[in-house]
Amino acid sequence: MKLVAKTDIGNQRMENQDSYRAGRRPDDLIWGVVCDGMGGARGGRLASTMAVDAWEKAVMEIVDDVRNPAEGMDLLQIAVDEANRVVYEKAKAVPKLHGMGTTAVGVIVHHGVAQYVHVGDSRAYLYRDGAIAQLTKDHSMVQELVEEGFLTEEEAENHPRKNLITRALGVTQDVDADFGETAVKPQDILLLCSDGLSNFVTAQEIGQTLEQVPFFDTAQVLVEKALKAGGADNITVLLMMIEAAEEKNG
Questions:
Q1: The whole model's pTM is what?
Q2: DSSP class of residue 187?
Q3: Most buried in the list 31, 120, 221, 230, measured by CB within 10 Å?
Q4: How many CB atoms lie within 10 A of CB 208?
């Protein structure tokens, strides 16, 4: 497995409220999470940082016991619940932090399966054989309007309320997360990102970049594309490439 990531404050923000963590285990299990904090002066940066720290701690305590897909899903459930708990309890305990929260998208890859969980509008994509597919579905007001038939996908791309999310981590005692899984094969690339990328770089442009740019340069190039397109938000990109068994040992 290969990993590469990049985060950037963007062109207009005073603070980078995105955070990420990722790791690879000796058995080649790989995991990662991207969070995009919200709350402005009320703690968006703190929320995302606390969430990824709690996520990493939960993963590290459990990951070596993951032997099958069911246990992989259990790991994701525990990680998202623990991240939600620490952010919620902090916001509840400190009045000036009330209302802070964060999006989250996390993945674990093992034994040819990618399992993922998300809350909010941070996304996961799968790139394979020149084609890119969005794995997650935004928890946003605009996405709901699309699903109800009031907006087309094209209209949603430029809707003024595109950034209004309907779910977040840390704002309620129990988090409402969506889970999924997909088979993966060698040369597949998984991409996790905050909306600072997806709002400024189309899926087609992302796919073209992954096709044309060497893997370890892709995160930097994608961030640069988002910056050139406006970069009005923090930008975070985390990519994972699946390798064949024979490639792992050179």
A1: 0.91
A2: T
A3: 31
A4: 15
